[in-house]
Structures are given as C-alpha cells and as structure tokens.
Design a protein that fits this description.
It is a single chain. The chain has two helices and no strands. The protein is mainly alpha-helical. It is rod-shaped, with a radius of gyration of 50 Å.
Length: about 120
C-alpha cells in the first residue's frame, strides 16, 4: 500500500468483483437448474440402463443354466444310446451264435434220422 492510495481501495475491488447483478444470479441459477435437471436425467438414464443390463445378465444366466442342463441331458442320452447299441450288438452276436448252433443240431438230427431210416430198410 502506497502513501497516496486510500486504505480500503484494494478491499473494495475485491468486494466489487464478488457482487453480481441479480440478472446474472438468475441466469446462473437457471443454468444450474438446467445442469441439475440434465444431471438428474443422465442419472435416471444410467439407472435405467443398469436395470436393463441386470435383466439381460439374469436372462443370460438363465440361458446358461438351461444350456448346461441341455448339455447334461444330451450327454446322458449319448451314454444311454451307446449302452443300448453295445447291448444290442452283444445280443445280436449271441442270437447269431444260437442260430448257428440250432442249425448244426438240426443238421445232426436230420443226419441221424436219415441213418435210422436207412437202417430200417
């Protein structure tokens, strides 16, 4: 502070900078209100998106569980089919063997019958 300067000169400048006309305050308040409304709108949109994402996540998890269940059932079906094929194959082999043995016995019976008929005559 110099000798020729008023004592409160610097202080008054600071106060003058802080004082704004009412029009400026109203405009600022409207801007702030718009900004607040805009933020509220963005928050609401974000919450809606979050809710939508949670629903999608739940749907995806449900689909995952369903696919896992289908996969488990498909594996069970494949195992059952393989077991059934194996059992049918073994049964077919047994039946073929029994048919062969029956054919052999039939041939033996016919041969024995022929011999008996020949011996009678």
């Amino acid at each position: 502070m110099g000798l020729g300067e008023p004592r409160n000169a610097g202080h008054e400048l600071v106060m003058a900078e802080k004082i704004r006309p009412i029009e400026q305050m109203l405009e600022l308040s409207e801007d702030e209100a718009l900004s607040s409304e805009h933020l509220d709108s963005q928050v609401q949109k974000a919450q809606e998106q979050l809710l939508q994402l949670k629903r999608q996540q739940e749907q995806i998890e449900k689909q995952k569980r369903e696919l896992e269940e289908l996969s488990r059932r498909q594996e069970e079906l494949d195992r059952g089919r393989a077991e059934m094929t194996d059992k049918l194959t073994r049964s077919l082999v047994v039946l073929e063997r029994e048919a062969y043995n029956a054919q052999k016995r039939l041939e033996q019976i016919r041969a024995t019958r022929e011999q008996l008929i020949c011996t009678r005559n």
